[in-house]
Amino acid sequence: MIDSPLRVVLAEDSVILRDGLVELLTARGCTVVATCGTAPELLAAVGETRPDVAVVDIRMPPTHTDEGIRAAVELRSTVPEVGILVFSQYVETVWAARLLAGGAAGVGYLLKERVARTSEFVEALRRVAAGGTALDPEVVTRLMGGGRRSRVDALTPREREVLELMAQGHSNRAIAGRLVVSERAVEKHVAAVFTKFDLAADGGDNRRVKAVLTYLAESGS
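Structure for Response regulator transcription factor, as requested:
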């Protein structure tokens, strides 16, 4: 786990909420190294301070639509070592799927109205900063299209192992190396997971994201 103090960049356009979060996090032993009110400020702050984790609101100026989560996706590709915790009252499924496309490790997505205690929020921050995952069940449900939870129990031990490595963001080649099997064998296991999860081909890599989300929902990660 990340040792205290946890270094945090906070991106929230509401000054009142932002100041309140700074006080709460500081009281819990975290160090807020920068606060931002816009997506460009967020990108610059993370680049300059390289925090353990960035807390990002989805809707930020100037359009208040998806600037924040777009910036979060960019950060995942440019500074993957920085944890990203989306903290919003909205679920943006398309961009959330892109945020998780490279794996769920070091990613969180919590809904503001569903966080009951500050301790839970800080615990989620630390988990994400340490490479873990913190996804609100409602977010997972929405990303899965409202479908029922997966049949993870139907997977073989090897298929579960492959899926767990997928959730950590590993490619088929990397998984093959870790398990000391051929890449073709991994492809067969991945295809079996897709079949058991009833994930039809959609012309993109969304099946991989949905498989990971299903695993997380079932495992309680």
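The radius of gyration is 18 Å.
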